[in-house]
Amino acid sequence: MEAKKNNRSVQRTCTMLKQGLAELMQQKPPSKITVRELTDYVNLNRGTFYLHYRDLNDLLDQMEDETLSNLQMILDAHKIQEITDSPFFLIRDIFQLLSENADLCMALLSDNTHDPFMRKIQTLVREKCFTDWRKVLEGKNEMHFDLFYSFSISGITGILEYWFSNGMQQSVDEIASLTERFILHGMDAL
Torsion-angle region of residue 167: left (phi > 0), alpha (psi -120 to 50) or beta? Predict the structure, then answer.
C-alpha cells in the first residue's frame, strides 16, 4: 500500500512539474525559466524537483520523449492499407495525443521556443509515411513524394498552430476530418 501511495505521490509531483513547465513556456523560452521559478509556480520546493530531474532540460527532454514514444506507438498501430483507404484515423489519433498534451504542444509551437520538438514529430511521421508509402508508390518519383510530404506536413503544422491558438474550439474528430479532406482534396474540400 505504501509503495502505491509513493508512486501516486511521485506521479502527481512529476505531473505538476510538467504542467507547470509547459505553462511557463507559453510565457517565455525554457532557457529563461529557472528551477526556482518553476517550483514556486507549482508550490513545491527545489529539493523535490531535484529528486526527479537533473535540471529543466532533463524535465523537458523527458516530456518530449514521453510524447514522442506515445506518437511512435500510434504510428505503429496504423497499417498502410488502413492509411491508404483513409488517413483519418491516423490523423485523429495523432491529434488526440497532441490535444492531451496541449499545454506542452502550445508552448513548443509558440514563438517563445525553437522547433526541434516539432521536427522530431515530423521526422517520426515522415519515416512512417515514407516506409509505408514506398511500397505503394513503387516506381513513382520519390522526389514528388518528398515534396507532397513537405507540403502536407507544413499544412498540418499550420492547422495545429491555428487549432491550439484558437482554443481548440473544434473537436479532435472535426479537425482531423478537415485535415484529411484538405490533404486528399485541396481547395475542393472548401
Answer: left
